[in-house]
Amino acid sequence: MEKFRKNFTFIGKIKSFKQVENELIFEASHKFIKIIILSNKMFRIRMGDSENFAFDFSYSIIKTKWEKIPIKVKETDIAIIIQTQELKIIVEKSPYRLIVKNNDDQIIWEDINSSAIGWKDNEIIYIKKMPEDEHYYGFGEKTGGLDKRGYSYRMHTKESPFYQTKTDPLYQAHPYFIGLRKNNAYGVFFDNTWETFFDMGKGFKDFYIIGAKNGELNLYFFYGPTIKEVIEQYTELIGRIMLPPIWSLGFVQCRWGYKDAKKVNEIASKLRENKISSDMLVLDLDYMKGKRVFTWNDETFPDPENWTKIMNEKGFKLITIIDPGVKVEDGYYMHDEGVKNDYFVKKTDDGFWHGYVWPGKTYFPDYTKEEVRKWWGEKVEFLLNKGISGIWNDMNEISYNIQPYLHRVKTKNTIFYDNGLNTSYEKNHNVYGLLMAKATHEGLLKCQPNKRPWILTRSGFPGIHRYAAVWTGDNTSNWQHMKMSIPMLCNMGLSAIPNVGADIGGFSPWINCLRKLVMRLDKNFATRWHQLGAFYPFARNHCVIFARPQEPWEFGEEALEIIKKYILLRYHWIPYLYNLFVECSKNGLPPMRPLILEFQDDEICYNIDDQFMWGEHILVAPVIKKNLKLHKIYLPEGIWFDYWSGERHHGKIIKSLPVDWHEIPILIRAGAIIPCQPDMEYFREKEINPLILEVYPDFNLESEYTFQEDDGESLEYLREKICTTQYILSCKNGDIEFIIGARKGQFKPNTRDYLILFKFIGTVKNIELDGTSLEKASDENLNKWYLDERTNDIIIKIQDTGEKRIIKINK
Ligand code: MIG
Fold first, then answer.
1. Taking the alpha carbons of 513, 515, 516, 522 in that order, is the dihedral positive or negative?
2. Which of 4, 110, 517, 561 is the most buried (most CB within 10 A)?
3. How much distance in Å is there from the Cα of 394 to the middle of ligand 1?
């Protein structure tokens, strides 16, 4: 450590300090530190060269005004102590040293014993103590396991074709993490767009290091104590998602190389013929004229307006890829407009900076300029007029040279507008994808003010979730990648990137044996990935142009049946998934969750990354190993029901389950109330009638669930066109009371019935609806109940009147 520290100058002692309302400014030997108290559990640290800190703006942050809270500041001989209702922030004077404690006097976050903040030229580092029982999560899109202790990462958005299980960095850059120790969680966001780095115990055993190549030390600290509270605060700061259109939660089919409309039609027909539920088809580079963005190839994709209309009628939305690079070519309107208006990224010496991407030599729009974002955003109208429903942003890291063996492209002397600061490529690089998505999002909203924009992006920086869903780029078709997708997507969820997915089946062939070039994927492998992918928040099968086809029907009848079953299960549960997104739009919590998010006090869950949760109630344990003989899964505390067999398990146990190709274990937590829809091949194929509720009672429990509905596509939900229903389940000694609360709100769902499945409860004595005994029937009948002898479910069908209903079941 000392050897490492020698390279840096450190901040040293505090000479003086002053308080201006909720800001404390410390003058140290060489620098100034400002601590800004934002709430009882949240503060910001900045470092500067003088009392006057640099002009302050952020591409990530949404909330800049915080209500002033009362704080107490006390000075002793050795320290200055700032007290909020939840935290004690101690700043020792000699040297400057920060220690954060909670109200129980537990240390949550602490600098090393010597001076912890240092710099060398433009580089800055901040060294923290790393208690041996502390664990780390977050960091956005990263390879590796769930618990990030022992890893080190660079935050630098980078195109990473053929990335492997240790490659770093990847496409997204999220200088943000969560620390967890003794059930206390905290979060740190380093709001600096330069390349930052985090060494979480790889370099040093007892310390971790936060650093940046350049820019300001500018950190936000959030205290939990729960991880959920950390995420809530982080997303209060950087904003929350807009609700995705409901069709975007369906299954998505894509590949690079659907070369014309005929091919896309064939895929669409096969999806429908095979009754594979799906809602979205994605067009890769081929639909454009010579890969020029915002052009359309009328020869290979003729009559797009009519074609997309027919596709929409069949229940397929079409999405088109758009890369940032604009072909350098006189006469091409995007080029000419960009040049004329000075919209492209420039060189300090002369002209525009250029690179080489799919269309050849390209210029890159400077999205750090509002005018450019507006220009770019409005271009989406071209695609909307053709009937396109959303935009896929690729190559936005920026990837500026796909032919490195032919060209040498340098970023030296390249400048961005950057809010008028005219700064270097390196400062703006990480936010390029974020700002491209922002431009696209704003454009979509402008052209279709009452439609929810839908964007998929590869690159991003904190804030990206406000505009886009994210997929994890060019993964590989092997078991390691299938497995790794779970911790990757879970950590993205913890990093406020909730709408995420990995390419199902894998994008690229195996790097060593290039198997996919000659052979189809193994059917067991492909099936397993679909069983898992059906639970990705964004579920897309996609692959590279030279791979063998990998659509669900490519692996034989039996595999197809299994894949269909899982996609259909996803569709069945989409109201539940959608409701998770509703929740996410309010509190930032992701739909796909590592177990640790739900069971933070269970240390066994700290590093479980081969299972995950869908919200609080559904646990998914996919098979992600070749030739697995026994599937060992961990069930945390509680009562769990095997979704397939109804078997009841007591949690805090490791279960060994036999492996069956047809199934992956799905466990439902007792007390769950899961809204479901009838089977359908795409949204709006039929109305949701009946609305199905799966209810999971147990001997003694109480639970409740609030279900929100809206039109699923417009922005009326922001104007209160929603309705909510609260369901309450109480079980006493096996007797069950289930209350459907009166529906509240302005949105009116279609006329419908409720089909309520009391799962796995078997024979009962008597059932009452609003005080009147219901008759038993032998199958589904309005206002009657029956026992499904195959599943042991008690099933009741009643009208959804919108009024309060009470069902009582005597066992
Ligand atoms: O350099 O558009 O990650 O999903 O199919 C490759 C072609 C460019 C990379 C994306 C991939 C996409 C492909 N793109």
1. negative
2. 110
3. 7
In angstroms, the CA 627 to CA 506 distance is 19
- Out of 256, 319, 397, 470, give the residue to mutate to test ligand 1, the one with the largest number of ligand atoms within 8 Å of its CB: 256
With left for phi above 0 and alpha for psi between -120 and 50, is residue 706 left, alpha or beta? Answer: beta
Q: What's the rounded mean pLDDT across residues 598-608?
A: 97
| 780 vs 778: CA distance, rounded Å | 7
Q: Is 681 helix (H, G, I), strand (E, B) or coil?
A: coil
Atom number of ligand 1 nearest to Cα 473: 3
- Among 322, 392, 394, name the best residue to mutate to test ligand 1's pocket (greatest count of ligand atoms within 8 A of Cβ): 394
Using the atom order of ligand 1, give the atom closest to the CA of residue 285: 2
Residue 569 pLDDT > 60:
yes
Residue-level pLDDT at 659: 93
Give the tens place of pLDDT for each residue, 640-680.
Answer: 999 999 999 999 999 999 999 999 999 999 999 999 999 99
What number is the average pLDDT over the span 249-275?
A: 98
Is the beta carbon of 285 within 6 A of some atom in ligand 1?
yes
Ligand 1 closest atom vs CA 503: 4
pLDDT, residue 520, reads 79
Q: Which of 147, 366, 474, 681 is catalytic?
A: 474
Residue type, 229: E
Read off the pLDDT of residues 694-703 as tens digits, 9 standing for 90 and up.
999 999 999 9
Pairing label, strands 673-676, 648-650: unpaired
C-alpha 175/C-alpha 144 separation (Å) is 16
How far apart are the CA of 753 and the centre of ligand 1, in A?
45
Q: The tokens 């069709």 sit on which residue?
A: 247
User: How far apart are alpha carbons 587 and 584 in whole angstroms?
Assistant: 5
Look at residue 1 in the predicted model and tell me its pLDDT: 84
Instruction: Give every CB contact of residue 52 below 8 A, 6+ residues apart in sequence.
Output: none
Which two three-digit tokens encode residue 609? Answer: 């990354």
In this structure, what token pair is assigned to residue 274? 């095979």
Average pLDDT over residues 57-73: 97
In short, whether 321's Cβ falls inside 6 Å of ligand 1 is: yes
422 membership: H or E segment, kind and range: none
User: Does the beta carbon of 325 sit less than 6 angstroms from any atom of ligand 1?
Assistant: no
Q: Are the beta carbons of 178 and 149 closer than 8 angstroms? A: no
- Check 394, 609, 610, 694 and give the catalytic one: 394
Mean pLDDT of 707-730: 98
The position carrying tokens 């509190």 is 587
Q: Which atom of ligand 1 is nearest to the CA of 402?
A: 1
Residue nearest to atom 13 of ligand 1 (CA): 256
User: Edge to edge, what strands does the sheet with 107-110 contain?
Assistant: 72-75, 79-83, 87-92, 97-102, 107-110
What DSSP letter does each residue of 214-244 carry, written as one string?
SS--EEEEEE-SSHHHHHHHHHHHH--PPPP
The count of C-alpha atoms lying within 13 angstroms of the C-alpha of 31, restricted to the half-sphere facing its C-beta, is: 21
Give the mean pLDDT of 700-729.
98
Is 78 in contact with 148 (CB distance < 8 Å)? Answer: no
Going by pLDDT thresholds of 50, 70 and 90, the confidence category of residue 511 is low
Query: In this structure, which residue's CA is closest to atom 14 in ligand 1?
Result: 394
Distance (Å, whole) CA 269 – CA 784: 40
Ligand 1 lined by 473 (C-beta under 6 Å): yes
Return the ligand 1 atom nearest residue 284 CA: 2
Interstrand relation of 500-501 and 469-471 (parallel, antiparallel or unpaired) = parallel
Q: Does 516 have pLDDT greater than 60?
A: no
As given in the structure block, the two tokens for residue 331 are 């006469």
Per cent of the chain over pLDDT 90 is 96
Catalytic residue among 147, 216, 279, 397: 397
Taking the centre of ligand 1 as the mean of its atom positions, its distance from the CA of residue 321, in whole angstroms, is 9
For the question of residue 2 being annotated catalytic, the response is no
Distance 737 CA to ligand 1 centre (A): 53
